[in-house]
Amino acid sequence: MTLRPRLLLDRLRASLWVVPLGIVLGMILLCELLLTLDARYPIELRLMSGAGIAGARDMLQAVASSMITVAGLVFSLTLAVLSQASAQYSSRVLRSFLRDRVNQTVLGVFLGIYTYCLVALRGLGVDDANMPTLTILGGLLAAFAGVVYLIYFIHHIAASLQVENILAAIEAETLPVLRRLYPDDVDPTREPAPIPPCPDDAIAITAPCSGYITDADFTALTTLATDLGGVVYVPHRVGDFVPEGNALAWLAHTSTPDDDTLERLRDAFSQGPQRSLQQDASFGIRQLVDVALKALSPGVNDTTNAIMVLDRLHTLLGELVSRPFPSSLRYVEGELRLVGTRPDFESLLGLALDQIRQCGANNPAVLAHMLGMLGALRLRACSAERVALLQHYARRVLEAAERDVPERLDQEWIRQHASIVLGGTDWISG
Questions:
Q1: Single pTM value for the model
Q2: What sections of the protein cross the membrane (predicted)?
Q3: CB neighbours of residue 114 within 10 Å
Q4: What is the edge-to-edge ordering of all strands in the sheet holding 211-216?
């Protein structure tokens, strides 16, 4: 399978080595440039008067040894933060830490200063050689910059462990994906067409490996189906796990394609060992839900964290509830060419609320906050069907409260919140 540029960039962005390596290479080039300038244009500064090559060498050696020590400290702190975040919140939130530009940059800064000093030491020459003033001054400034970065990194590590910042980062990363996958310029009056079933004689496009679908090029699939005069059926959503040998898609209403065509169809999909947010908005919702489930577990029992997750889910669902969803069917000149599979609003709402409702069924604060969120979403719903769906979920929350909340006053409090969504209390008063 081919790895498309946006997926490659996403994986590079989530790696801890790309940015540090780039900074290290940049510092090497900077040092070589300053050494060249010092050789061509000797400069004398009063700041460097009295300092010989031997003193400059000692200074660079001290900076280099201290920076490599600090780099090891930064790496250890990063691993400790990753371990704590995984245990306290969810292993899914590690993705945000790995993509954090500050963590990547700080590690690269200290390794870059260390490399700069090594290159500068090589270019000092003998003790009676001319002083490379710009190079030594660059090393001093880099050392001071390293001290500033260390202070900032300690502050950043402390801030990054706060659950508010973790949830805000997940929301900020998910919102643009939601807006791109579900644009607000879809015709709201268009009736969703029924999904036609895949015929029994369709040809399977099998997965070459086991993994999660991280990307699907529906435009390429539509073009290939048009060229073949057939229809491509995609039974999986982006983010689903497909074992090796199982069907990624089905090709119907056409003659048996050659191996090259099958390979081109297969290359329209990308699989990976983990999910990606590029075309999988539900993965962002999944990360938030995992944090709430950890907060509601008996070992943690942190109601406040669960409520903060619901606030972030409220933002994401608020973007979705007011947007008509695009069709999963694609036509070319009036002919059906692609039958895709994408999450509808009901499935995304269930993903966001079902497990939190189940784990927090005996928690009045969580249930009441969930009902308040559903009431606010009802005001933004773009159709009567969405309103009915929100009311249906409100009834499920109320049923959970009546079943698992022991205090009668708590139940009455939850009923009051439910009445906002349901538009009255007649049906629950009895």
A1: 0.84
A2: 12-39, 59-82, 102-121, 133-154
A3: 22
A4: 241-242, 211-216, 269-272
> Which residues on neighbouring strands pair with residue 336, listed in sequence order?
331
Q: Which residues, in sequence order, are CB contacts of 402 under 8 Å at separation 6+?
A: 411
Mean of pLDDT over the chain: 87
Tokens of 407: 């205090």
Residue-wise pLDDT tens digits, 213-241: 988 999 999 999 999 999 999 999 999 99
Q: Single out the residue of 251, 205, 166 nearest to residue 1, CA to CA.
A: 205
Residue 88 confidence (pLDDT): 75
Instruction: Give the per-residue pLDDT at 429.
Output: 36
Other C-beta atoms lying within 10 Å of the C-beta of residue 43: 13
Whole-angstrom Cα Rg for the chain:
29
d(Cα 26, Cα 251) in Å, to the nearest integer?
Answer: 49
* pLDDT tens sequence across 27-39: 999 999 999 998 8
CB within 8 A of 61, min separation 6: which ones? Answer: 117, 121
- Is the predicted pLDDT of residue 187 greater than 80, yes or no? no
- Give the residue extent of every domain in the chain: 5-161, 281-322+344-429
> What average pLDDT does range 73-98 have in this prediction?
77
Q: Which two tokens stand for residue 184?
A: 């607000």
For 405, phi then psi, to 5°, come to -85, 120
Q: Which single residue is written with the structure tokens 């900076």?
A: 63
pLDDT for res 427: 39
For residues 165 and 162, what is the distance between their CA atoms, to the nearest angstrom? 6
Both structure tokens of 64: 């280099």
User: DSSP secondary-structure letter at 205?
Assistant: E
